[in-house]
Design a protein that fits this description.
It contains six helices and nine strands, in the order E-H-E-H-E-H-E-H-E-H-E-E-H-E-E. It is α/β, with parallel strands linked by helices. It has two domains: 101 residues, Rossmann fold (3-Layer(aba) Sandwich); 102 residues, Rossmann fold (3-Layer(aba) Sandwich), CATH 3.40.50.170. Strands 3-2-1-4-5-6-7 form a seven-stranded mixed beta sheet. A two-stranded antiparallel sheet has the order 8-9. Keywords: Purine biosynthesis, Transferase.
């Protein structure tokens, strides 16, 4: 069983997908704590509804990003977290958090990486005129959405789409893909080979039923 800590900043719809998957026994995990850097984040209510402990750690209360991440690490460790999930966490993380959970931080990104990393990926894809968009679950490293890719889901861009419509359809795929990949991790289907000097970490995934 995975002991998860989930970091959020907003609505927490991917958090809800994870919590629902746990409750429905589709995901062999326990969410030990949900932490938000925004006190008014609606996603905190999803955690409370499932009886999951919540914390608010305001990044503005710290002198720098490293100090903020240090507080995150302290709280995650206090709740006996093994894996960290970024579910709409709108902060750039530092080596303090990365080194505390090496290659055990999972992110969901709304594009088919390596295309359109960073902010507003759905708008980037729509404005670029791609015919296929999608989402990616990946491990987090020191780059911006550059970590090893675990799985992706494609979403066709329809002639009738506008950017909000495309965003909504990508989000629906995120809600399916993230719990599925976490279950693969819980089942031991994900093997991570750390980077050698000057190289990149490699991931081997034995995929479950799609």
């Amino acid at each position: 069983m995975l002991n998860l800590g989930v970091l959020i900043s907003g609505t927490g719809s991917n958090l809800k997908a994870v919590l629902d998957a746990v409750a429905e026994k589709r995901l062999d995990a326990r969410v030990n704590v949900v932490i938000s850097n925004v006190a008014t984040a609606p996603g905190l209510e999803h955690a409370r509804a499932h009886g999951v402990p919540t914390l608010v750690i305001d990044h503005k209360a710290f002198p720098n990003r490293a100090a903020f991440d240090g507080a995150l690490v302290e709280s995650l460790r206090a709740h006996e977290v093994d894996w960290v999930v970024l579910a709409g966490f709108m902060r750039v993380i530092t080596p303090v958090l990365l080194e505390a959970f090496p290659l055990r931080i999972v992110n969901i990104h709304p594009s088919l990486l390596p295309a359109f990393p960073g902010m507003h990926a759905q708008k980037q894809a729509f404005d670029y005129g791609v015919r296929i968009a999608g989402c990616t679950v990946h491990l987090v490293d020191a780059g911006t959405d550059t970590g090893p890719i675990l799985a992706q889901a494609a979403v066709p861009v329809l002639d009738t789409d506008d950017e909000p419509a495309l965003r909504t359809r990508i989000l629906a795929e995120e809600h399916t893909l993230l719990p599925r990949v976490l279950q693969w991790i819980a089942e031991g289907r994900v093997t991570v080979v750390p980077a050698e000097q000057g190289g990149r970490a490699r991931v081997s995934v034995t995929r479950g039923e799609v």
